[in-house]
From TrEMBL:
Species name: Paenibacillus naphthalenovorans
InterPro entries tied to this protein: ATP-grasp (IPR011761), ATP_grasp_subdomain_1 (IPR013815), D-Ala_lig_Van_CS (IPR000291), D_ala_D_ala (IPR005905), Dala_Dala_lig_C (IPR011095), Dala_Dala_lig_N (IPR011127), PreATP-grasp_dom_sf (IPR016185)
Keywords from the UniProt entry: ATP-binding, Cell shape, Cell wall biogenesis/degradation, Cytoplasm, Ligase, Magnesium, Manganese, Metal-binding, Nucleotide-binding, Peptidoglycan synthesis
Cofactor(s) it depends on: Mg(2+); Mn(2+)
Pathway: Cell wall biogenesis; peptidoglycan biosynthesis; Glycan biosynthesis
Protein name: D-alanine--D-alanine ligase
Enzyme class (EC, first level): ligase
E.C. code: 6.3.2.4
Length: 392
């Protein structure tokens, strides 16, 4: 019997469209002899849909028409442990059970999909799923927490400061002085928990700093400001595996049209290819020693954050000193970073197969753990301690 893979994508995120591209790439890469893909599209309001038409990217040009031809569903685990797609609409002649899945494959970039929210929901419903768990997803999505943990592990990160946007609105001068005293200019201003370069701006002086923070605060309640490396080379490396074994991909240098790699650079030049269409140099022209350094740091970061599945770790290289800094981790990277594995002999089909097998392995391991005790504390009510819930 084929494994039915529920590929979840879309979502309530500014990276919604990017998620569609990545997910459809993954769906078409699945080995159809082993797996049967079940598309599960999450619209921007959080409604879930399934249907064959969702697997054709051209259909998204007329999204309202596509959704009319799709079934709105609820993913539910019944008492027998089956993970069922239930028709969300009521009606006497409507089919109640639309489909069933055996494992979930989230390809949901950004908020409510990559940040642990969806992973927690899948855990509660005992649905095996591909990729990082709740903790590593949440930490990886939050740039401040990620850098705090990585720096605490002794790994190199660029100098930074952070604050809540409320603090910015209440004490703007204090925040500006904090940036100027700790970092100086130029700096990079980022929302704490978004990806795909959304809301990121460079600031060369106080006026630009204020403008950049105002912009970032519209995306996130927490802001991070980082010292900018002026003679910069940006290099990415992917890692696949889990706590027992990890493997690093080839490194890439992503080419950008400005000083900051933008959303335009990443996705808009060849939109249908997602991150696979971005201009890049593979392998990155950084020499063997620096390549090994980046790959080792990528694996260490992956393990320190407790990751599983595939992630992409982005690095900053100061070309004046050849210093390497960990910039951020993408726990559900664009296009699942398949293009970084091809030079290592792992095609997209093999990549998706590895990810599903890692998910099923974790599910088997979790099934052996104890999450509750078979006791009835309430049966002790009134025996030697009065009634529960009352004061003496």
């Amino acid at each position: 019997m084929k494994v039915k893979v529920g590929v979840l994508f879309g979502g309530m995120s500014v990276e919604h469209e990017v998620s569609i591209i990545s997910a459809l790439q993954a769906i078409h890469a699945l080995n159809r002899d082993k797996y049967e893909p079940v598309p599960i599209y999450i619209d921007k309001q959080g409604h879930w849909y399934t249907g064959e038409g969702l697997m054709d990217i051209d259909n998204y040009k007329q999204l309202p028409e596509l959704l009319k031809k799709s079934e709105q569903v609820i993913l539910h685990t019944n008492q027998e442990g089956k993970h069922l797609l239930i028709n969300a609409a009521s009606g006497l002649f409507r089919k109640k059970i639309i489909d069933e899945i055996h494992v979930a494959f989230p390809v949901t970039h950004g908020t409510y999909g990559e940040d642990g929210s969806l992973q927690g929901w899948l855990d509660l419903n005992k649905i095996p799923y591909v990729g990082c768990d709740v903790l590593s997803s949440a930490v990886g999505m939050d740039k401040i927490m990620m850098k705090t943990i990585v720096r605490g592990a002794g790994l190199p990160v660029i100098d930074y400061v952070w604050f809540y946007s409320k603090r910015w609105f209440d004490a703007q001068q204090e925040c500006v002085e904090l940036v100027e005293q700790r970092l100086g200019y130029p700096v990079i201003v980022k929302p704490a928990n978004l990806g795909s370069s959304v809301g990121i701006q460079k600031a060369d002086d106080r006026e630009e700093l204020v403008e950049a923070i105002e912009s970032a605060s519209s995306y996130s309640p927490r802001i991070i400001v980082e010292k900018m490396v002026t003679n910069l080379k940006e290099v990415n490396c992917s890692v696949i595996g889990d706590y027992e074994h990890v493997e690093a991909s080839e490194c890439e240098e992503v080419l950008k049209s400005d000083e900051i790699l933008s959303y335009q650079d990443k996705y808009m030049n060849q939109a249908a290819k997602g991150m696979g269409g971005t201009s890049r140099i593979i392998p990155a022209e950084i020499g063997e020693e620096t390549t090994r350094r980046v790959q080792e740091l990528a694996k260490q970061t992956f393990l320190e954050l407790g990751c599983s599945g595939v992630s992409r770790i982005d690095f900053l290289i100061d070309q004046n000193t050849n210093s390497v800094y960990i910039n951020e981790i993408n726990t559900i990277p664009g296009s699942l970073s398949f293009y970084l594995w091809q030079p290592k002999g792992k095609d997209f089909e093999q990549l998706t197969d590895d990810l599903i097998q890692l998910a099923l392995k974790r599910s088997r391991e979790r099934a052996q753990l104890t999450f509750s005790y078979d006791t009835n504390l309430l049966a002790l009510q009134g025996k030697g301690g009065g009634k529960l819930g009352t004061k003496k």
